[in-house]
Amino acid sequence: MTDFQVIEEHLVPIDRIPDAGLTALVSYWERKKGGRPFALRRDIDPADIPGLLGNIRLVDIEAQNVFRFRLYGTHATNPDQRDMTGLTTGDYEDKAFGEVVTRHYAEVAADGVARRWHIKARVDAGEYEYLRVVLPISRNEKTVDALLVHSARLKNPFVLWR
């Protein structure tokens, strides 16, 4: 287990993403949502975005602050260095990391507005810097009940890779 600690975190406008993978995912989500406030779950097909799959998380919202990973990409890193598929954000061993992820997901779940964060953190292995995009999706066109998430590493100690 590591000791994740946020050094700096800020929101950046969703249309100012300096990463091609994140930009591609946001474009895909925008096409799928059309004129609706969020994309529909039935329209999201991970096979449509094979080049992004390694970093994608598809997250079900089970209750307030309960977020279960339906899909956890093989290239998605976390301080626990484990596949979180089937687990929740509360199951991260590094509780500080889990709390940040839960907070980000809860913000998007609460108002249905897509967000992108730039996060600088410290872990036992060194500095950890990344971008996280959280996009709302819905099964019923009325409420946000799932999330499409992608992160891009800017600086990530090799030891965090799974």
What's a concise summary of this model?
This protein is α+β, with helices and mostly antiparallel strands. It has helices at 20-33, 95-111, and strands spanning 5-12, 39-40, 56-63, 66-72, 115-123, 126-138, 146-155.
Throw out a few tags for this protein.
single chain; 162 residues; alpha+beta; Beta-Lactamase; 7-stranded mixed beta sheet; 35% strand; globular
Radius of gyration: 15 Å
Coarse morphology? globular
The CATH C-level class name: Alpha Beta
Helix content: 10-25%
CATH topology category name:
Beta-Lactamase
Task: Describe the fold and architecture.
The structure is a single chain. The protein is of the alpha+beta class. The protein has a single domain, classed as Beta-Lactamase. The chain has 2 helices and 7 strands, in the order βαβββαβββ. It has helices at about 20-35, 95-110, and strands at about 5-10, 40, 55-65, 65-70, 115-125, 125-140, 145-155. Strands 1, 2, 3, 4, 5, 6 and 7 form a 7-stranded mixed β-sheet that branches. A hairpin with a 2-residue loop joins strand 3 (about 55-65) and strand 4. It is globular and about 45 Å long.
